[in-house]
Amino acid sequence: MGDFATYNQLVYPPDNYSWNRFIDIHGISPSDTKFPPIFPDVWEEIKYFIEGQNILSHNGAFEFSVLNKTLDYYGMETAQFKQHSTYKIYKKKLNILCAEHGIQLKHHDALNDAKAFAELFKMHLNLD
Questions:
Q1: pTM above 0.70, yes or no
Q2: Residue at 6 is within a domain
Q3: Number of domains in the chain
Q4: Residue at 8 is within a domain
Q5: I need a surface site. Which of 58, 65, 70, 114 has the fewest CB within 10 A?
Q6: What are all long-range contacts of 1-10, with beta carbons under 8 Å and residues at least 24 apart?
Q7: Is residue 4 assigned to a domain?
């Protein structure tokens, strides 16, 4: 995968609560999120990279709503950015797309997923 800056940070969720369904998907449990910073502290570090930018996800309908609900939960202003979703572009699951295009994937690892859908988006834009 190409070279680009990355940022990967666990965040302490409210009451350190995690749904078992999501623990089963991504493997992150309350013991993993017991000591990380709260979202408002992390937001101060990453806001510059999101506000007013083109932001990419795979399942934007879910992922962008999580960001906006998190900002709302903490009484923070909603971020303004242009949304791009590789699922909307390709209409397939990330793991299937990666297999079809020879992109290595450690599925549901946030940083690895992000690198994978960035590669797919670059392909869509014909940047490779």
A1: yes
A2: no
A3: 1
A4: no
A5: 65
A6: 1/103, 1/104, 1/115, 1/116, 1/118, 1/119, 2/118, 2/119, 2/122, 4/118, 6/111, 6/114, 6/115, 7/45, 7/46, 7/49, 8/110, 8/111, 9/36, 9/37, 9/42, 9/45, 10/36
A7: no
